[in-house]
Specification:
The chain is α/β, with parallel strands linked by helices and about 160 residues long. It has one domain: 3-Layer(aba) Sandwich (Rossmann fold). It is built from 5 helices and 7 strands, in the order H-H-E-H-E-H-E-E-H-E-E-E. It has a 7-stranded mixed β-sheet with strand order 3-2-1-4-5-6-7, with helices on both faces. It is globular, with a radius of gyration of 15 Å. The two termini are about 25 Å apart.
């Protein structure tokens, strides 16, 4: 039910622009913590798995780090809405979109991978990431109240990023 509601709210916001400020305020602290804990910088190529119609995480990462961001989503309608929304913001050159299944996607080219909370089936997507991502890839997995970041250069186990 929560994913359905989030999808509907994003759909309406993407169509009208109303509510974008609320999304931005809601996600800003979360994304800034994830950027800091994963040490995302301009030289990275970030992949956001699950962008929805309002790819707020991708937008904020692109704006805050000036890095190249790619968003993958399995829903072609959400991709089209997100592309249109990003174009209205004037940052279409900063974010690329790919319509694909996150379970079978090749994650090798990315230095940072961010998995959205609403991604389904999240376990299978994470298994796909484990199979194809480079060992040095930093992986952020967002859950309800926490984000987990794997960074093999600093630690060999995930650590928690409090979201409260």
């Amino acid at each position: 039910m929560r994913c359905y509601l989030t999808k509907k709210i994003e759909y309406l916001t993407a169509k009208t622009g109303i509510g974008w400020f609320i999304f931005k305020v809601y996600y800003y602290r979360k994304v800034m913590r994830e950027i800091n804990y994963a040490s995302i910088c301009e030289k990275d190529h970030v992949l956001c798995v699950g962008g929805g119609a309002i790819p707020c995480t991708a937008i904020l990462i692109a704006q805050q780090t000036n890095t190249k961001v790619t968003v993958v989503d399995h829903d072609s309608l959400m991709i089209r809405l997100a592309q249109s929304f990003v174009k209205r913001l004037g940052i279409e050159d900063s974010i690329q979109f790919i319509h694909t299944n996150g379970e079978t996607f090749c994650y090798r080219p990315y230095s940072v991978i961010h998995v959205a909370r609403q991604v389904e089936p999240q376990e299978e997507v994470i298994a796909g990431i484990s199979k194809t991502a480079c060992e040095q890839t930093r992986i952020i997995i967002r859950t309800a109240n926490l984000s987990y970041v794997r960074d093999n250069q600093k630690q060999h186990v995930p650590f928690e990023v409090p979201m409260l």
